[in-house]
Design a protein that fits this description.
The structure holds two protein chains of two kinds.
Chain A: H1 5-11, H2 22-60, H3 62-65, H4 67-72, H5 75-79, E1 94-95, E2 102-103, H6 106-137, H7 140-155, H8 158-177, H9 185-209, H10 213-221, H11 226-237, H12 239-255, H13 258-263, H14 281-288, H15 297-332
Antiparallel strand pairs in A: 1-2
Chain B: H1 3-39, H2 45-49, E1 52-53, E2 58-59, H3 62-93, H4 99-113, H5 116-139, H6 151-176, H7 179-187, H8 192-221, H9 249-259, H10 263-302
Helix pairs in contact in B: 1-10, 3-6, 3-8, 4-6, 5-6, 6-8, 7-8, 8-10, 9-10
Classes of the chains: A mainly alpha, B mainly alpha.
Chain lengths: 336, 303
């Protein structure tokens, strides 16, 4: 366009560009200022994310810089077995406020893993199957009823789910399965499942419904039954998106705090049993930050756990985002 | 496979997935039924308007209600301008292949996935120690004035947490405003900002309100981020200034459920508090759903 402009001018009478009036210039300036403000605001999202990692990491940095903290909570002490009483084998212990602080993160990792695994074992099949039902088999009326119900479930504050797990689920499960400890990994994991089922359902349902109608019609035209179409055509086509939903749910389960804090028993035990009480990374921050001395090694340690949680969930989110994008690209771009 | 086998397998798969859906609905029903049957009898006018008494064993939840309302109001005031303008940037100003826009989107996706307890740490490290500490030094306070947990810091922490909710909802609302409206306005000689303020934003208002309501319902229920940025265990006085601590429905629920000396005695209070909190968030969610379906229907009719 720019290249053509002089030519057009030469054809007509020589046009002098209208001298912009002061009013018009003021208007232009104002537009620029407004666009600038809007753009600046958009940076707050990036700024917030950067500030979060900077300020959480900053408070954790003492673990590596401060001599006292380095001695009390070195990386070696965080991740290897520590000597206990003389004559006993070294063990993984989280006792940050005892006279000789023991700061092994292994029990916290194990606790987080146990509750997360339990919740995923329940939430993935239920969430994905529910989404498949809503997207493929349910009559329209039923689906339109199902979606707001899931939204309501997603809207329940996690403290209420924690309360429900603590007051109702724990008693019910103990009566049914005879757990030694009333609050344990299974109770917390089931509570967590309630929180992440809506996440998995929503993302999986989105992925399933964005599979083009033509795929289904082609499959049905070839003589496949509706369930064969759903199972062998729609589900594989939506697989990356469904997987993304599961990864997202996994990230939520790792970071969720109140449910685990209330329903897991909060005992940092290294064991394989799901019936034992557990202490998760996030619940440890919540439980101990209130009484910690600001700037102490223990304080830095809790921020270090925060950094770990941030990094875990950051990676999982990026993976999930890439996969959701992939399913959309595969279904809408390229071939069609 | 024989025809009859194929039908049987199909039937089994349909009912299995249906069962999963039923399980989800069933769990919601169980939770609601439990909270409602145990809590409904105790939610009285007195309960809603009195302060807790007898070491949390009696009385009501008024300070917690007030604190939750004040907290979410401050949060909304902080998050709405930033969230709406960010969405406006993404949808109205950013060039289609803008690198800034792409980074903003990545940041929003990740912000939405950061665990809420990490927001609490951020609030403590950034708002309380860095900003609050800086304010105290600049203003010359000898004792801790701003560098301590308070309602302002808690609400700003929640504002960062709910930022993605507002941005996503607003962007969806902007997308629903037909392109014709913008071009018509520009063709009549309006500038881009005039188009934005007089045409686009009014058209997107219902969707923006939906975002606000969703942010409030999310923010009102979050407890982890306010654990150490301002929520108080027991505080019969209402917060009077931006740096005072406050009581909160969700935190009150947590305290009653886990730190009560006599769980059986506080049980009715606990259930009543949970019922109020649950009804509050549900009411907000339902309002959001209603606004959204109305806007969608209007948008569908316009085409």
């Amino acid at each position: 366009m720019d290249r053509e402009a002089p030519m057009q001018q030469s054809l007509a009478e020589p046009i002098v560009a209208p001298r912009s009036s002061p009013e018009a210039r003021r208007r232009q300036l104002r537009e620029k200022v407004i666009a600038g403000i809007v753009t600046a605001m958009a940076f707050t999202g990036i700024a917030a994310l950067v500030l979060i990692i900077v300020f959480v990491a900053k408070e954790a940095l003492d673990l590596f810089l401060d001599a006292e903290a380095r001695h009390e909570a070195s990386l070696a002490k965080m991740f290897t077995a520590q000597p206990t009483r003389p004559g006993r084998p070294p063990a993984y212990l989280w006792q940050p406020v005892s006279s000789v602080p023991k700061v092994s993160m292994i029990p916290l990792f194990i606790g987080t893993l146990k509750t997360t695994v339990v919740s995923m074992l329940v939430a993935v099949p239920v969430g994905v199957a529910g989404a498949l039902f809503a997207a493929e088999f349910a009559p329209r009326r039923l689906r339109e009823l199902l979606k707001p119900v899931i939204e309501l479930l997603a809207g329940i504050p996690s403290v209420v789910l924690g309360f429900f797990a603590l007051m109702v689920l724990a008693t019910f499960l103990q009566d049914t399965f005879g757990f030694t400890y009333r609050l344990n990994a299974v109770v917390a994991g089931l509570g967590l499942a309630l929180a992440i089922v809506p996440v998995i359902f929503t993302v999986a349902e989105d992925a399933l419904t964005s599979v083009p109608r033509s795929y289904r019609e082609a499959s049905l035209a070839l003589g496949a039954t509706p369930w064969e179409t759903a199972w062998k055509v729609v589900l594989p086509a939506a697989a990356p998106g469904i997987l993304a939903g599961c990864v997202l749910g996994f990230g939520r389960a790792i970071g969720e705090t109140m449910i685990v804090l209330m329903a897991s028993g909060n005992a940092a035990i290294v064991s394989a049993s799901l019936g034992d009480s557990v202490r998760s990374l996030s619940a440890t921050i919540a439980a101990e930050m209130g009484e910690v001395v600001v700037g102490s090694p223990h304080y830095s340690l809790l921020f270090f756990i925060g950094v770990e949680l941030f990094v875990f969930t950051f990676i999982l989110n990026m993976v999930a985002a890439t996969w959701t994008k992939r399913v959309l690209k595969r279904l809408t771009g390229g071939g069609s | 496979m024989k025809h009859s086998t194929r039908r049987a397998v199909g039937g089994a798969l349909t009912s299995l997935t249906g069962l999963a859906a039923l399980l989800i609905v069933g769990m919601l029903a169980v939770i609601l039924l439990d909270v409602f049957t145990e809590g409904a009898g105790h939610v009285t006018w007195k309960f809603l308007t009195e302060a807790p008494s007898d070491g949390m064993m009696g009385g009501g939840i008024f300070p917690a209600l007030y604190g939750t309302a004040a907290l979410t109001l401050l949060m909304t005031l902080a998050v709405m301008p930033v969230g709406v303008l960010t969405a406006v940037y993404l949808h109205e100003y950013a060039p289609p292949d803008s690198i800034v826009a792409r980074w903003v989107r990545v940041a929003i996706v990740n912000l939405a996935g950061v665990p809420s307890i990490v927001f609490g740490l951020f609030g403590l490290g950034f708002f309380i120690h860095f900003v609050g500490g800086g304010l105290d030094r600049v203003l010359g306070y000898q004792e801790l004035h701003w560098a301590q947990p308070g309602i302002l810091w808690a609400s700003l922490t929640l504002a960062v947490l709910t930022l993605p909710v507002v941005i996503v909802a607003t962007e969806e609302a902007l997308r629903a405003v037909p392109l014709d409206h913008r071009t018509a306005s520009l063709a009549l000689g309006a500038t881009q900002s005039q188009t934005l303020v007089r045409v686009v934003l009014p058209g997107a208002l219902p969707g923006i309100l939906t975002g606000a309501v969703l942010a409030v319902s999310r923010g009102a229920g979050e407890v982890a981020p306010i654990l150490f940025t301002g929520a108080a265990y027991f505080l019969p006085d209402l917060p009077t200034s931006l740096n005072s601590q406050f009581m909160h429905l969700g935190y009150h629920t947590y305290v009653l459920a886990t730190q009560s000396p006599d769980v059986e005695a506080t049980r009715p209070l606990l259930y009543a508090t949970v019922l109020v909190l649950l009804m509050l968030t549900f009411a907000l969610n339902i309002v959001a759903v209603v606004i959204r379906t109305r806007t969608r229907r209007r948008a569908a009719n316009a085409h």
